[in-house]
Fold:
Amino acid sequence: MAEDINTPSVKQSKAPLYISLTIIAAIILSYFFIPEVREFLSNGWSALTSGDEERTREWVAQFGWFGPLVIILTMILQMFLIVIPTPILMVVTILAYGPVIGALILFAAIFLASSFGYFIGRYFGPVIVEKLIGYKTEKKISDFIEDYGFWTVIVIRLSPFLSNDAISFVGGVLKMGYWKFIGATMIGISPLIFFIAYLGGDYERLKTGLIWTSIISLVLFVAFVWWDKKMRKDKA
Structure:
């Protein structure tokens, strides 16, 4: 009997979910039972959402050169976990390091994280990717990339709440040209980074701006897909 191409070859792994829940539980318990952790988290949250640039810089300065490295490593790790969503990490980086340095750190972090995900997909193949993101997600993004290629990567990167990590894995699985993929990634992520950098330390404007950016990008993508399918149907 021929293998059904619509049947997943492996089950999606639950390990990332369990690890993420464990980390979240550990942070919550530490907050309530370890005074030093509670003070650190409270001070950090207060500084990053205060809108006071000097206060934010002073809090971040305690980490020295280690701070940007932690952001880059966290950006890579969050591809496999659900502890810190990418948009939140981007906002924190801009709030902590300012629009110029923060944007440069984000470009470096996204470049490295996207490259890491791409090469996992390219060299470990669909079995590993299906375990990480699930068969349905892998199949859906694969179909979009095969239909729209370069533009799929740009639109997904532009939207704060679409699956940025999945596009890296699937781009590698489909053996999309690396420089084409990374070029589309950097083009797509640039407006979002510049937008967050422009809004700067205004937490409320950042939150509202991210929501509207996501809605607009989704509407534009759906409109483009509808238009493309209509044009193909008219030509048939």
